[in-house]
Design brief:
197 residues; alpha+beta; NADH Oxidase; four-stranded antiparallel β-sheet
Length: 197
C-alpha cells in the first residue's frame, strides 16, 4: 500500500513515501539487511562523536526473545506489533563515555540515529514504526539494561501488509489521509511565532 505524502515543497522521494504502518507482512529481513539498516544508524552525527545509541533487537525467528519484547509493550501496541517480524528498543547512554559527564544531547543524537535507520530501511523496501507505548522498566528487567542507559522508544521493522488484517479502529488510522502542521506554524524567523514561510 502506498501512502505518499502530499508535500507543499519538494522533498526527497524516500521522505515523501515513508510512513509508519501497523499492518505487516510476515517477511523477515535477512541478517545482512538488518546489518545495513543498523549500519545507517551507526553513522549518524552525535555530540563529541559520542554515539550514545544502543539497540535491543528481537526477531520472529527467535520466538522466546520476541515474546519477551512483546510483553514489554502496552496492550494497544501488542495488538498490531505482534505481526511485525522485528521488534526492537532504542536505548540512550546518559553520560559521555570520554569524560563520564551527563550528555544533555543524548536523546537528540539517538533521534538522529533512528531517523537514519528509518530512511535506510525505507530505501531497502522495509518500513519502521516507532512507538512510545511500552514499559521501560519491563524492558530494563527483561533484557538486563544497566543503569546509565535510558529506554527511549520501541519500534518494529517489516514490510507493510494488508490493512484488512487490522481491527476496525486501526484499519481506519492505517488508511486515513496523512496530515502535517504547515511550515508557517513550525518554522519561525526573527521572533517566536513569526513564520519564515
Amino acid at each position: 500500500m502506498e501512502r505518499r505524502a502530499k508535500t507543499t515543497h519538494p522533498v526527497l522521494e524516500i521522505i515523501a513515501r515513508r510512513w509508519s504502518p501497523r499492518a505487516f507482512a510476515p517477511d523477515l529481513p535477512s541478517k545482512d539487511e538488518l546489518a545495513s539498516i543498523f549500519e545507517a544508524a551507526r553513522w549518524a552525527p552525535s555530540c563529541f562523536n559520542g554515539q550514545p545509541w544502543r539497540f535491543i533487537v528481537t526477531t520472529k525467528d527467535d520466538a522466546g526473545s520476541f515474546q519477551k519484547a512483546l510483553s514489554c509493550l502496552r496492550e494497544q501496541n501488542i495488538i498490531w506489533a505482534q505481526n511485525a517480524p522485528v521488534l526492537a528498543f532504542l536505548v540512550a547512554g546518559e553520560n559521555f563515555e570520554h569524560n563520564g559527564k551527563p550528555n544533555p544531547w543524548s536523546d537528540l543524537d539517538c533521534g538522529l540515529a533512528m531517523g537514519q535507520l528509518i530512511l535506510q530501511a525505507e530505501s531497502m523496501g522495509w518500513s519502521a514504526h516507532v512507538m512510545a507505548g511500552f514499559h521501560p522498566d519491563k524492558v530494563r528487567e527483561a533484557f538486563k539494561v544497566p543503569e546509565g542507559f535510558d529506554l527511549l522508544a520501541a519500534f518494529v521493522i517489516g514490510k507493510a501488509g494488508d490493512p484488512e488484517t487490522l481491527p476496525e479502529d486501526l484499519k481506519e488510522r492505517e488508511t486515513a489521509s496523512r496530515e502535517r502542521k504547515p511550515l508557517s506554524g513550525t518554522v519561525f524567523s526573527g521572533n517566536w511565532g513569526r513564520s519564515m514561510f
